[in-house]
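Q: I'm building a small set of examples for a reading group on sequence design. Run inverse folding on the following structure and report the sequence directly after it, with nothing in between.
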């Protein structure tokens, strides 16, 4: 316990710790717009507000069309209630084909090889092949496709019934192949990317009631909070983890540590625990700030005041443990701060691993995504994937820690030096 307090005290004296906290808090505040007002998104209230705006709006003429303007903003007579995720193939067809027609007309196609945007321009022959695909997808002749436009009237004339689901997905896979892969038209990505349908009032009421009854409101906001916090917590703590171990080398403390009787496992575990504790406390403080704001809007009787902390335990702490374990392992192994670069590479891979599933990405990456308030049923329908993901990364973290202990112990007892000498002797004999 004395060693733990010593390590915590050392952390609080470290400027790197406060830099890490500033990055975490700053990123989360910016992403969550924490200074903006949270308001009750009850569709009945939203409908009432919209009707009031329509009643007070002034009619103006823009580009020959009559529009409604309220407080310098254009509004529509029909209220909008956001969008919902669906696997309805007709919705996916309409959204994806409209996008493909636009890209065809521009001859500029967005692909994301290795997670980074790459604009593709096709040759005349490839454009001819793309026109053939679009002809099959839309029921238009080849000539009509070539003379297509991005005007709304053209889209209204499209016939999607010419292809069933199986044929549609097959054609779109061919489109992806023509683009060199990495597009959102692939069978694996197309539904998650283009499965967005507008919600009507009844849909919005149903979604709101689910948030109210199943999430107790706080659950919906806690997932959004963890979505953004999960991004930055999966990198920022690496700065402290690397610093704490690398400082031993630069300050000469490593020789003192090696000469003391404290065991390798005790030292490694205590240091990781100390970093884990201080970051967890900071995360809980950050969550409390946002939790209080949500409670103040919906009332303490209508929410679960512990939801934010439950989500942190499940969603955030496995990320924190992974980063600290990775930073510890790499720094002990190399004696250099290369763990920061290594974690940055992994962070980019994890970010883009869920880039097409922002509203419900619970697959293989460390960073889980749920960048929306709501989509509650989708989350609970996939809760098994969340648990599996968390267990896997917790196990990996524990393995990293055990390996770090082993390597640290070998180094303290000269084992790593012996291994290096054996390797050098073999090279000389060769």
């Amino acid at each position: 316990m004395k060693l733990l307090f010593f390590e915590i005290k050392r952390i609080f004296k470290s400027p790197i710790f406060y830099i890490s906290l500033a990055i975490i808090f700053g990123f989360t505040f910016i992403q969550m717009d924490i200074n903006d007002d949270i308001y009750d998104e009850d569709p009945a209230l939203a409908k009432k507000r919209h009707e009031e705006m329509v009643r007070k709006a002034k009619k103006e003429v823009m580009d020959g069309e009559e529009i409604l303007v309220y407080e310098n903003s254009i509004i529509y007579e029909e209220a909008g209630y956001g969008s919902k995720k669906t696997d309805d193939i007709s919705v996916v067809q309409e959204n994806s084909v409209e996008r493909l027609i636009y890209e065809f007309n521009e001859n500029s196609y967005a692909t994301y090889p290795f997670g980074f945007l790459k604009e593709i321009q096709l040759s005349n022959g490839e454009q001819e092949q793309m026109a053939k695909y679009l002809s099959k997808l839309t029921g238009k002749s080849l000539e009509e496709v070539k003379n297509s436009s991005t005007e709304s009237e053209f889209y209204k004339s499209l016939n999607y019934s010419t292809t069933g689901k199986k044929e549609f997905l097959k054609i779109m896979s061919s489109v992806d192949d023509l683009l060199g892969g990495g597009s959102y038209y692939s069978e694996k990505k197309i539904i998650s990317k283009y499965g967005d349908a507008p919600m009507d009032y009844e849909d919005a009421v149903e979604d709101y009631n689910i948030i109210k009854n199943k999430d107790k409101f706080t659950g919906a906001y806690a997932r959004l909070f963890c979505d953004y916090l999960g991004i930055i917590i999966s990198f920022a703590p690496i700065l402290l983890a690397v610093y704490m171990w690398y400082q031993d080398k630069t300050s000469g403390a490593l020789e003192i540590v090696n000469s003391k009787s404290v065991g390798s496992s005790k030292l490694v575990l205590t240091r990781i625990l100390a970093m884990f504790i201080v970051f967890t406390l900071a995360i809980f403080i950050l969550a409390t700030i946002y939790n209080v704001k949500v409670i103040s809007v919906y009332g303490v009787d209508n929410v679960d005041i512990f939801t934010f902390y439950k989500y942190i335990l499940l969603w955030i702490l496995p990320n924190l443990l992974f980063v600290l374990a990775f930073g510890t392992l790499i720094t002990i192994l190399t004696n250099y701060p290369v763990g920061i670069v290594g974690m940055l590479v992994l962070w980019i891979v994890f970010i883009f691993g869920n880039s097409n599933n922002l509203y419900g990405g619970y697959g293989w990456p460390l960073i889980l995504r749920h960048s929306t308030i709501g989509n509650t049923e989708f989350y609970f329908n996939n809760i098994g994937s969340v648990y599996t993901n968390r267990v896997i990364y917790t196990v990996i973290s524990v393995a990293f820690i055990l390996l770090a202990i082993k390597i640290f112990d070998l180094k303290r007892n000269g084992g790593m030096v012996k291994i290096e000498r054996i390797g050098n002797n073999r090279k000389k004999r060769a």
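Confidence is low (pLDDT under 50) at residues 417-424.
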